[in-house]
Design a protein that fits this description.
Two copies of one chain form a homodimer. The first copy, chain A, has helices spanning 15-30, 45-56, 62-86, 96-99, 118-125, 152-163, 197-205, 213-222, 245-248, 275-285, 315-324, 326-329, 356-366, 390-400, and strands spanning 2-7, 34-39, 91-94, 101-103, 112-115, 129-133, 136-139, 145-147, 168-173, 194-196, 226-230, 238-241, 254-258, 261-270, 293-296, 303-311, 333-337, 340-346, 373-377, 380-386. Chain A is of the alpha/beta class and 412 residues long.
């Protein structure tokens, strides 16, 4: 098998951990596999460099920023290769350029266009462990250094795994897999053995922080099997793959939550075509991401209440945008609630089972939890509730859907 | 004029100093010059990286070492370009690869083969200040990252100045020029306005640490005018150039000294052809550099004393080599003196003046300083003396040759 292993910043944070990464790569090779390792910068290094840059120029050129930031991964990939060699196995460190990771020229958040991977292929064939600097690539025409944005090393790993037709892409992180809920909140939370790309994406977008969303999207698109594991133990991880028969039996796979939103309600806005569009276009123009939207109007109403949620850190900025539009919106009042939380249930099984949302609402209601807003997708239901009820909501839903049991009859 | 400015590690050691470098580059550009800046890694960074590598692998692959070490200069060149832009001037940061610095493939001490410089030429023409990562290049065939060895950024600057036909190459360091002697020892030491490449090379090889020897050699070979200046003040520096009329009037230009040698005497070695060769070949094989050699034998003597000096840090290692050769050398005793110093006078004027060496010996003798070994070149005379007399020797020679006066009649 050809296995791509990606190690994040905490997994290469110091000498001992880099040695640990090298040891694991050598162990994998010892089982007869070809191994390509993708490494991030040592934890804190990228932030340190960003901080240096901003002390010098609060608005630095993105081209120079990429040149700056790409050095962190170069350092870890060189050190990791040295560590592998110390364990007696041949190793070669390759930068994004040397591996042939070609991107567009959108500096600091470039997209990978294609990967040649010639040197890696040859080195793997010759029995080397290949260590690649994650997060970086180069442009085709001018060979400018680019970076792929936060969490870009996950993306490097998935794209390389696809380009080299790897059998598995292992993402090593500081948790040992994807859980049915945050184990800090739900004691009985269980590690999921297998989950679909779709569910993982939904979980990630609903607040779970295990994997970078874009990398899961790319893995799904190209059908790259992903395994999330911890670099600090040898526990079995979570496999992220396409839907299979086992999974169909499960209706709800996991509970996600998000504590970092605010809810804003624009009261008594004029009920005219274009008013909602105006609000959300103006907010989007400031790069603020609106999550849920709710509007309650009956036909013929002159005025409407429009509610939506945004990242809490953007509350002030968003309020300013709305106030600046007072004339156009013609609202009577603005209501702000910074004490909300979002709880979500996720599972591909919902497609073929009815009554899942009802069960969720019922469960919350039984525990006296009031639902302020609801949002649904094909494989998830999310509720905005009072922040002080959030952890309880996660626990009671975990119980209600029987997530502590591997194959549960969740709707019995 | 096209001016290349090279700033060493202490000149870019922190944010404030990087801003200072940017300010100076912008000031130079403000006078109507084109400016290309070459930067080293922030002081201490390269040592930090080497230390990390050696903690992981005491014998790391030199290829990976170069990938590792080249990141320090990338960081400073990106930050310096950002700082220049902050001062309102367009800037572009270029790595060794992006400037087109092609080297041989001798990792960690590569030689520059040629420089294309296309991007730099275009950017300079378009009014940019170009900031280049020193110390690094790439190989032609496989585009491997290489580094040029300690002090390699000086070499980058000189080679780039030649390749782009710059009018001047300024080397900024923490001293503001080349002095007639170390100002810490001789209060009256005077900064030299102009000195020849040859004298500078001689001074560097005799212990002065202002410039890296290879970079002066290259500057001499291609006739690149070098100016040594301080980045911490606006004092006039020292121009290093070809010999001109003014210089001929001066016999001795400067006094150099070296405190870091040991003298070893192999007593009663067999006086046979090949014995000296055996000793020095064996020492060279361990990469220990022998400086002075003295041998006193009369024709027909059966035994000879062979003295030589080596870096003090290599004393133990050298003694081991000699002892291992006891049978072949057949010596009776080894004498080690770790308390020696070397004092040297340097000046191109010596070529056309006689009596200079005699005056040096006389001066030392007048002050009760015993000379243990003597070495001469066309433009220098060096004496090994007792370490405790070294500073006094520098002072009395500085006086004797009247170096505090600009145009002195030194042999009057």
């Amino acid at each position: 098998m050809l296995i791509v292993q990606k190690y994040g910043g905490t997994s290469v944070a110091n000498i001992e951990r880099i040695q640990n990464v090298a040891r694991r790569a050598v162990e994998t090779a010892g089982k007869g596999h070809s191994v390509l390792v993708v490494v991030s910068a040592m934890a804190g290094e990228t932030d340190k460099l960003i901080n240096l840059a901003h002390q010098i120029n609060e608005n630095p050129s993105t081209r120079e920023m990429d040149l700056l930031l790409s050095s962190g991964e170069r350092i870890t990939c060189a050190l990791t290769a040295m560590a592998v060699e110390k364990f007696g196995k041949k190793a070669i460190a390759l930068t994004g350029r040397q591996l042939g990771i070609y991107t567009d020229s959108v500096h600091t958040r470039a997209h990978i266009e294609y990967i040649t991977g010639e040197r890696a292929k040859k080195a793997l064939k010759d029995g080397y462990i290949v260590v690649v600097a994650g997060f970086q690539g180069i442009t085709k025409e001018t060979e400018e250094v680019t970076t792929l944005g936060r969490g870009g090393s996950d993306l490097s790993a998935v794209a390389i795994a696809y380009a080299l037709r790897a059998d598995l892409c292992e993402i090593y992180t500081d948790v040992d897999g994807v859980y049915t809920a945050d184990p800090n909140i739900v004691k009985k939370a269980r590690k999921i053995k297998k989950i679909t790309y779709e569910e993982m994406l939904e979980l990630a977008s609903l607040g779970a922080k295990v994997l970078q969303t874009r990398s899961v999207e790319v893995a799904a698109k190209f059908n790259v099997p992903l395994m999330v594991k911890s670099s600090f133990n040898y526990n079995e991880g979570t496999l992220i793959t396409t839907e299979d028969k086992d999974m169909e039996k499960v209706v709800v796979s996991a509970i996600a939550h998000d504590k970092n939103q605010s809810k804003i309600t624009v009261k008594g806005a004029l009920n005219r075509p274009g008013i909602a569009a105006l609000i959300f276009k103006s907010i989007a123009a400031k790069n603020i991401i609106v999550d849920m939207i709710g509007q309650n109007i009956a036909k013929g109403d002159e005025r409407a209440d429009i509610s939506f949620t945004i990242p809490r850190s953007e509350t002030k900025e968003t309020l300013k945008i709305i106030r600046d539009l007072k004339k156009e919106i013609g609202y009577t009042d603005i209501d702000v609630n910074e004490n909300i939380g979002k709880v979500s249930i996720v599972g591909v099984g919902m497609r073929t089972h009815s009554g899942v949302a009802a069960k969720m609402f019922e469960t919350l209601s039984e525990h006296g939890i009031n639902i302020m807003m609801i949002n649904t997708s094909e494989i998830s239901v999310s509720c905005i509730i009072d922040l002080r009820h959030l952890e309880m909501a996660v626990r009671v839903l975990h119980d209600a859907f029987g997530l502590e049991n591997e194959l549960n009859a969740q709707l019995s």
